[in-house]
Amino acid sequence: MTQLDTLKQKTHAINTEIYALYLSYRDSRVKWYVRMLLALAIGYALSPVDLVPDLTPVFGYLDDVVIVAAGFRISYQLLTKQVRQEAQLQAFEDMSSNTPTSAFALKIVSYAWLLLFSLLLVFCYKLLHMHTL
């Protein structure tokens, strides 16, 4: 097996685990704060918006790695074993089939960030013009 094949397998395993976390997020047995942490970690991982721009040497990618890894690790530990196992099984089954869902996921994340940004702009606008009333 070549290094490229090994890298592809590891990438597939990581993608499956991330998808399993997403499936866990949708489970009704998961507490609200675990859902919030998962949503923030997955959203930050997929978002083009960063706290530190990627063009900044070292720190641009380091913040991505630290924030996303910490969010996934903590949320993974907070999930119950049963929920984790069911989500991993479902993720493995879904990822083994070759259905194109990545474009749909990208649209959802993009619309969510657009909505959040719009709400933030409206809030800032109202805050700035509150004293004029």
Summarize the structure.
With 133 residues, the protein is an all-alpha fold. It has 2 domains: 3-99, no CATH class; 101-133. It has helices spanning 3-26, 32-46, 59-78, 81-96, 102-128.
How many DSSP helices? 5
**Rounded Rg:** 18 Å
Helix content, binned percent: over 70%
Largest sheet, strands/sense/barrel: none
SSE pattern: HHHHH
* Number of separate strands: 0
Q: Helix- and strand-based class?
A: mainly alpha
How many domains in all? 2
Strand content: under 5%
Distance between the termini: 70 Å
Low-confidence spans: pLDDT under 50, at least 5 residues?
A: none
Which overall shape is indicated by the principal axes computed on the Cα atoms?
globular
Q: Which whole number gives the mean pLDDT? A: 80
List keywords for this structure.
about 130 residues, mainly alpha, 2 domains, 5 helices, about 0% strand
Description:
- This protein is an all-alpha fold.
- It contains 5 helices and no strands.
- Helix 1 packs antiparallel against helix 2, helix 1 crosses helix 4 (81-96) and helix 2 packs antiparallel against helix 3.
- The chain folds into 2 domains: 3-99, no CATH class; 101-133.
- Helices cover 77% and strands 0% of the residues.
- The N and C termini lie far apart (70 Å).
- This is DUF1232 domain-containing protein.
- The chain crosses the membrane at residues 32-49, 108-128.
- Keywords: Membrane, Transmembrane, Transmembrane helix.
Give a topology summary.
Layout: H1 3-26, H2 32-46, H3 59-78, H4 81-96, H5 102-128
